[in-house]
Each structure stands twice: as structure tokens, then as C-alpha cells.
Amino acid sequence: MELKGKVALVTGAGRGGKGIGRAICAALAGQGANIAIADFVEEAAEAVAEECRQIGVEAVSLKVDVADTADTERIVQLVVDKFGRIDILVNNAGITRDQILLRMSEAEWDAVIDTNLKGTFNCTRAVAKHMLRARSGRIVNMASVMGLIGNPGQANYSSSKAGVIGFTKAIAKELGSRGITVNAIAPGFIETAMTEELSQQVRDTISTQIPLARLGAPEDVANAAVFLCSEASSYITGQVINVDGGMVM
Questions:
Q1: d(CA 177, CA 189)
Q2: Are 47 and 102 in contact (CB under 8 A)?
Q3: How confident is the model at residue 1 (pLDDT cuts 50, 70, 90)?
Q4: Which residues are known to be catalytic?
Q5: How far is it, in rounded angstroms, from Cα 56 to Cα 206?
Q6: How far apart are CA 210 and CA 207, in angstroms?
């Protein structure tokens, strides 16, 4: 699954520590890919870029609002200007604004849909132009098991991730004849800063719903991403890989 010389753009990857985006960047860099880290907080993106440089690849950090069409086109052009190409796009940027339906504001709905779904559309469209010319590419969209089964208090988030799954399948059919694969990863409960806030009782309850009886690690998601970005998955497109310990099964 070596990716030496490839160029990857990963959005929403600025969270340090146990962030999924950071783990994906590190895993791609570990296989030799040069990395462009795009995040709403540039300082956070730069911290991850420095980690990638320590691995031995080139890395740049970029500030972006993925919900802003012009902003995504700007950063994609910056990556092409810097590296001359984009081989891999990982649409990892996402937010939550949890609230039960009757209390959910229009702003909370719009913010999640704009970042999680429209952001995926914006980045994919901007990158696809370059991949089509190259007649090759790997696009990995971050969905969620909540886009498959729903979750109370997350109508906006679940809808956005279900939309990402539908988007993935449609674009896979559009781009497949040009050598571009488009797949999605649907993580379950992963050990991140978000899940660390859960009480031990809630974590124990969640674990009973997972056949492997534990929460996943960011590296579990990153390993799936590396596979989908590599030649090892060259005949796989339009698929959703659940990285959930068997929970949805």
C-alpha cells in the first residue's frame, strides 16, 4: 500500500491527539505520501503538518472553510501549485450540533449540513477537475454509522452522513470510467476527544452493543483510509466500509 510520491489533501485534520484526521495524515505520510492538511484552525493544521514532516514527507497547512465554495477552490489550487498534482482527497471535515428535533434551530441544522455534506461536495468538485485530467485518483469520504442507522438528537448529523453515502455512490458512478475511485468510511464509536467526554457508564453500555466489545482507535479508521487510497483497492469503488467493531451488523 505504498504511496510514495503521491499527494493527499485531507480536510478537517487539524485536531491533535486522538483525532481521526490526524491519524489519517500520519498513516498516509507513513506510506510516503506528501500531505496537505486543511482545517478551519490553521495553527492546528500546522501542528499536524509538522508531525508529517517528522515522518519524512513534505507537508503544508491550509486554513479553509469547506462550506465556502470559493475557499475550497482556492486551497485546492494552492495544493496543485505547490505539488503539481492531487492524487488523494480525504473529506474528513465534520461537525456536530446535537439537539432533539423540536429544539433544533435552523442554524444548527444548516451548520452541520453545510460543513459535512456541502463541504464534501465543494472539495470533491474542486479536486475532481484535476483528477479527471490525470485520469486517476482516490477519493475517500468520511461518513458515519449514524448515517446508516440514525441517532436520537442527531437528525442533522445523521442526515448529513446519509447524504455523504449517497453522494459517494453517485460520484463513484460518474468518475469511475476515468480511473477515479470514490469510497466512504463509516466509523462507529472511536476513541476521540468527543468520546472521552462520555461517562464510564455510557461507554460500558456502548461496548455491550459492539461485538468486539470495545471502542475503536483512530488508527483503525486510518488503516481503512490508507487501503482505499492505495493500489490495493483499485477495483473497489462506491462502497461504504464500516469501521465499527461489528456494531451495525
A1: 35
A2: no
A3: confident
A4: 157
A5: 38
A6: 5
